[in-house]
Recover the amino acids of this structure.
């Protein structure tokens, strides 16, 4: 089963800060709850895993990531990820992410387009539920991405101009602290999303 996603996430950081995170594959993996890079085999290939916990149950997916493109000029990253668990389920994702300037100065937009293919037990949930789960995971990822980018030092700016009387203008107020990162996948929230989706589909059929 294949699911296609197109997302835009506004960021209250500069494009340079956002790109500094996006161009670092390890940093990107850290933004995905439950994911970790365990090994870099060469300049464009990595090995890693994703862990999911739902109550007392745990699941682990081992996989590989290949960097297909990394364009500094256009601030674009393309990745191909593949993974599988011991139960026979597998998934792959072709992701293209780009940093664009935001509507106001000093802001950016993280734009992502992905094609996700799942096989095995996860495919039985259907496309609608998979989209709901993907939306939830990507929202958690975007929050972590914002926190990672906000923690970086912004590009240097010119000194404040002196006023007519020789005094300098007051410095800008410090930015609010970035939100804490979510370090593991919210399995219970995902399960609840699946249950709600299942009931919605069931009621829709009966109607």
């Amino acid at each position: 089963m294949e699911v296609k996603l197109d997302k835009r996430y506004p960021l209250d950081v500069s494009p340079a800060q956002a790109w500094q995170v996006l161009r670092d594959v390890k940093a990107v993996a850290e933004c995905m709850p439950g994911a970790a890079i365990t090994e870099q085999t060469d300049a464009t290939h990595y090995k890693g895993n994703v862990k999911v916990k739902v109550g007392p149950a745990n699941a682990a997916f081992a996989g590989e990531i290949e960097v297909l493109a990394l364009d500094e000029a256009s601030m674009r990253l393309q990745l191909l990820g593949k993974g599988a668990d011991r139960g026979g389920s597998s998934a792959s994702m072709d992701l293209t992410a780009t940093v664009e300037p935001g509507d106001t100065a000093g802001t950016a937009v993280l734009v992502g387009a992905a094609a996700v293919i799942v096989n095995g037990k996860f495919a039985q949930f259907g496309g609608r539920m998979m989209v709901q789960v993907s939306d939830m995971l990507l929202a958690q990822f975007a929050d972590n991405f914002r926190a990672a980018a906000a923690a970086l030092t912004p590009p240097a700016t010119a000194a404040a101009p002196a006023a007519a009387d020789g005094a300098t203008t007051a410095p800008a107020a410090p930015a609010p602290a970035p939100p804490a990162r979510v370090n593991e996948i919210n399995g219970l929230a995902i399960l609840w999303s699946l249950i709600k989706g299942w009931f919605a589909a069931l009621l829709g059929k009966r109607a």
Q: What stands out?
A: The CA atoms of residues 129 and 197 lie 6 Å apart.
